Amino acid sequence: MGNISSLILQDKGHSHIIKAAGGVADKIDMNAYLVGGYVRDCLLHRKNYDIDIVVEGNGETFANELAKVLGISTVVDYNRFGTYAIPHPEIDIEIATARRESYTPDTRKPDVEFCSIDEDISRRDFTINAIAASIRSSDFGRLLDPYKGIQDLQKGIIMTPLDPDITFSDDPLRILRALRFAAQLDFSIASNVLDSITRTKDRLNIISWERIRDELIKSLRADKPSIAFYLMKEVGLLGYVFPELDIMSGVEKIDGKGHKDVFIHTLQVVDNAAELTDKMEIRFAALVHDIAKPQTKKYYPDRGWTFHGHEEIGKRMMIGIAKRLKLSNELRDYLMSMIKLHLRPIALAKEGVTDTAIRRIMNEAGDDIDDLMTLCRADITTKNPSKVRRYMKNFEKVEELMKDVKLRDEMKMFQSPVRGHEIMKMFNLSEGPEIGRIKGIIEDAILDGDVQNDYDSVYSYILKNKNSLEAS
C-alpha cells in the first residue's frame, strides 16, 4: 500500500497543511496524529476530502495556532465535544482532543471524556478507520495500528476494533456507516458485524434524522450506491430508515402476468445514474422517482399491470419524506419536480418529438432540464437491446433540440410579452392571483403554438379570447 510518509508528502494539494500542523505540534510540544479517513484513503490511494487531526492536549490551543499559521481568522468551536473546525478553502480540517464517546440508552447526544490517543483509537468505528499517523517531525509518519486495520484494508473487509455490539451501542449511527463504507469502498462486512447490526439496529432510533439523512446522502455518493441499500434491506433496517423503499420489493402475478420488482429496478436506476453523473441530487431523484408505484399498482385483464398517476402521487409523498429526513426546501422542491416530470422525456422518446412538446417540458423543468434527461437515461433498465437502441435514438433527437442555444435562451427568458399591468387594464382587475392565472393560459397558448410569441400577436389573441379568458 506504500509508505504513509511518502503518501502524505505526495498529496500535493494538502501536504503543506499537514506540514504546517506538524510544525504547530512541535512548537507547542503536543502530540498530534492524522486519523481515520485521511490515513485510510491515503493507504488506498483515494482522494481525500477532509483532514482529521487528533491531539493529546488542548485541541482549542492547537486549532487556533494552526488557523493562525494557515492565515485563517475563524475557528468553529464545538467545545463540548473537544472538536474544532478550521474552514480552509481547499479542504475541511477538523481538530479534536483525543476522546471517547458513548450514548446512554435514551439520548441522542453522546457523553464525551478526554483520553490518550490509544484509547481514542480503540473507540473508533472500524479497524480501517482505527489507524493513526504521527505528524511531529521527530516521528513523522509513524503508524499506530493496534487493531490491524491495514490488514483489513488489504482484505477489503469491514470489522470493528471491539465487540461490534459495544461499538454499535456506543454510537448506533455506526450501523449506517458500516453499510455506507461497504458501498464507498466496495468492501464486504464481516459476518459477525452483520449479525450484530441485525441485533442492534433498533438502537438507531436514538439517532437524529439529520445524521441519518447525512449517511444516506453519503451512500448515494458512492460509486455503486445500491450496495448500501441492499444491505439495509438484508439486515431489516430499510423499514425504519426508508419505509417507502422497503415496501417496493416483490413481484405479484395474476393470470401469469407479473411486473418488475420495483425495488430492484429502482436500485438499478440509482446505479445507472451514478455511472452517468457525480451529482448527488440526480442520484437521490433516481432513488425516489418511482416511490409511489406500490400505492398505484393495479391489474387490468386487458392491459396488465399499471402504475397510473405514480408521478403525481410520488411528488406529493416527497413532502412527507423530506420532512422526516430534514431535507432542505430546495432539495425537496427539486426532487418533487424530478418525480413529477420523470416520465415525460420517456414518453417523447416513445411517441415522437414535436417542437411544442420540447418547449413545454423545457419550460417546466427550467434549469434542471439536463438533470431530468440524465435521470431518464438512467431509467432505461430494459435488457432488450432493440428497445434500448430505439429509446436512445429518440433521446438523441430530443437532446439535439434541447441543445439549441437559441431555444434555451428563449425558454430562460420566456414569458408573455403582454405584461401583468396591461392585463390588469384590459380586464379591469386589481393585483391578485387572477392575473397569474390569465398569464398562465396565455403562456400555454404560446407553448402550444396557438399564437406567436410577439407583442402584437398576443395582444390580438387576448382581445379575441377575452370572454373565454375571463370565464375559464
Describe the structure.
- The longest helix is centred in the last third of the chain and has 18 residues, at 385-402.
- The chain starts with a helix and ends with a helix.
- Helix 14 (262-276) crosses helix 21.
- The protein is α+β, with helices and mostly antiparallel strands and 472 residues long.
- The strands form five sheets. The chain has a seven-stranded mixed beta sheet with strand order 3-4-5-2-1-8-9. Strands 6-7 form a two-stranded antiparallel ribbon.
- It is globular, with a radius of gyration of 28 Å.
- A hairpin with an 8-residue loop joins strand 6 (99-102) and strand 7 (111-114).
- The chain contains 27 helices and 15 strands.
Helices and strands, with pairings:
Blueprint: H1 4-9, H2 15-27, E1 31-35, H3 37-43, E2 50-56, H4 59-69, E3 76-78, E4 83-87, E5 92-97, E6 99-102, E7 111-114, H5 117-122, E8 132-134, E9 143-144, H6 149-155, E10 157-158, H7 164-170, H8 173-185, E11 188-189, H9 191-200, H10 209-220, H11 226-234, H12 238-241, H13 243-246, E12 253-254, E13 257-258, H14 262-276, H15 280-288, H16 293-296, E14 298-300, E15 304-306, H17 310-325, H18 329-341, H19 344-351, H20 355-365, H21 369-378, H22 385-402, H23 405-413, H24 420-427, H25 433-447, H26 455-464, H27 466-471
Parallel strand pairs: 2-5, 10-11
Antiparallel strand pairs: 1-2, 1-8, 3-4, 4-5, 6-7, 8-9, 12-13, 14-15
